[in-house]
Design a protein that fits this description.
The chain is globular. It has six helices and six strands. The longest helix is centred in the first third of the chain and has 19 residues. By secondary structure, it is α/β, with parallel strands linked by helices. It has one domain. A six-stranded mixed beta sheet has the order 1-2-3-4-5-6, sandwiched between helices. The two termini are about 15 Å apart.
Length: about 180
């Protein structure tokens, strides 16, 4: 399996997580906001936006998804449950600003809108691959790479096959070097 080394991405993630932990340790509030990020995100700020916190049951809430804003830009997306694409658009985030999508696991309430988000990058000025970082497989689920290839390849949404290979890099925890 090809190993990927993303020092800038790892530095960004490490730095962002350190900032979040620092804010929490200082007792400063992390704000979940429905308004546009410009109201909260200055050049040096970090904010976590809850796009959805719903589960797999039918409800009036979008599925699990969170955006990490750094300096006024949406940099990291954690999970992409049902409704994430709509909430992403409502937040004024730009797909071309995203550095990576982290999938905690591959249940539909955490990953259902990922194909729509990947396809949406085709219609933007995004020029670099979107890193998708997700779990390795187990007896119940395939690994993230196999899941995406099945979902967006010849056995799934065939028309997205070229988009997947041109615009997306899939990284499993064991394939990220530190």
């Amino acid at each position: 399996m090809r190993q990927y080394f993303f020092p800038k991405l790892l530095d960004l993630v490490s730095s962002s997580l350190l900032q979040l932990v620092s804010l929490l340790a200082l007792g400063l509030p992390l704000t979940s906001f429905a308004a546009t990020p410009e109201k909260l995100c200055s050049e040096n700020s970090v904010a976590l936006q809850v796009l959805g916190s719903g589960g797999p049951e039918i409800s009036n809430r979008a599925g699990t998804s969170y955006l990490l804003w750094i300096g006024g830009q949406a940099k990291l997306l954690f999970d992409a449950g049902p409704g994430a694409r709509l909430r992403f658009a409502e937040s004024s985030a730009k797909i071309e600003d995203l550095d990576a999508v982290f999938l905690t696991h591959l249940h539909v309430d955490h990953a259902n809108d990922l194909p729509a988000l990947i396809k949406s990058g085709y219609f933007t000025p995004r020029t670099r691959p979107l890193d998708v970082i997700g779990p390795t497989g187990n007896a119940a689920m395939p690994d993230t790479r196999r899941w995406l290839e099945t979902l967006l390849g010849n056995d799934g949404y065939r028309y997205l096959s070229a988009t997947l290979h041109r615009t997306t890099r899939v990284n499993l925890p064991s394939s990220v070097s530190m």
